[in-house]
Amino acid sequence: MSDPASQPRTDPVLPTDPFVSSAAPGPASGSASDAPVIIECQDVHKWYGDHHVLRGIDMTVRQGEVLVIFGPSGSGKSTFIRTLNRLEEHQRGRIVVDGIELTTDVRNIAAIRREVGMVFQQFNLFPHLTVLQNITLGPIRVRGWTREKAEEEAHRLLTRVGIPEQALKYPLQLSGGQQQRVAIARALAMQPRVMLFDEPTSALDPEMISEVLDVMQGLARSGMTMLCVTHEMGFARHVADRMVFMDDGVIVEQGPPTQIFEAPEQERTKRFLAQILH
Questions:
Q1: How far apart are CA 152 and CA 242, in angstroms?
Q2: Which of 269, 132, 120, 139 lies closest to 204, judged by CA?
Q3: Are 21 and 217 in contact (CB under 8 A)?
Q4: CA separation for the pair 233, 223 (Å, rounded)
């Protein structure tokens, strides 16, 4: 295996204008079928004691692809995406991210975490640091950037997510939607090749959800590879290249949004969609 530090980077180029939600409906990045594979999972299993949480997950994700993973509570969705950056350890199977296999080798784990950004349900911002400090901490300490470079990038990203005026405030001075947009900017500041979203709108008041989804939609249309655990079906219909329905630790069904919404093949998928769409 080659040294993780020597892996080539082909970061997606983000647009220069602020993210907006006015783009026409349809998958974010068009066909990704010819793009190189960036994530490959083979027979991934995870247990919590006797509880078999992931039961043989097989998945291939191509560069620039946008996946929406959905399913009932306890189906293993969040656990699965957390295995992709080793926040959860899988006990069996194989996970390869950007050519690096995720093993117990701490060098591989560190290399993958540098390339995979994550946004959580609860923001996880440092309350004692300003917005600017939250965003610049990672690039300075992990990427080795100068403070000037990190702050310049932080201001650019805050403009990109629509809150440039909040740079010197503390997280508790912001609304939930603003805090989640800071969390997205913080993840992007590390220049990741993959973004993971773990139900990023579930802790938000309804009126704040759209501002976060707008940012995510713009990010998807920029060509970023994204795996999103969410029940925001409008977002999935308009942005996802592929939807993955999980239940009881397995992938029950997957396909493009048109198939999942209009002609799902599995009865379990049909029942779940009937519950959340009506």
A1: 35
A2: 120
A3: yes
A4: 20
Ranking 22-26, 90-94, 217-221, 274-278 by mean pLDDT, the lowest is: 22-26
Q: What is the CA radius of gyration of the chain?
A: 18
DSSP 143-177: I---HHHHHHHHHHHHHHTT-GGGTTS-GGGS-HH
The tokens for 254 are 């997957």
Give residue for tokens 């992938």.
Answer: 251
The packing angle between helices 176-189 and 131-138, to 10°, is: 30
Angle at 162 between CA 136 and CA 236, to 5 degrees: 100
Predicted TM-score (pTM) of the model is 0.86
Of 14-28, 103-117, 209-223, the one with minimum mean pLDDT is 14-28
The dihedral through the CA atoms of 79, 80, 84, 88 has a sign that is positive
Q: What is the largest CA-CA distance in the chain?
A: 55
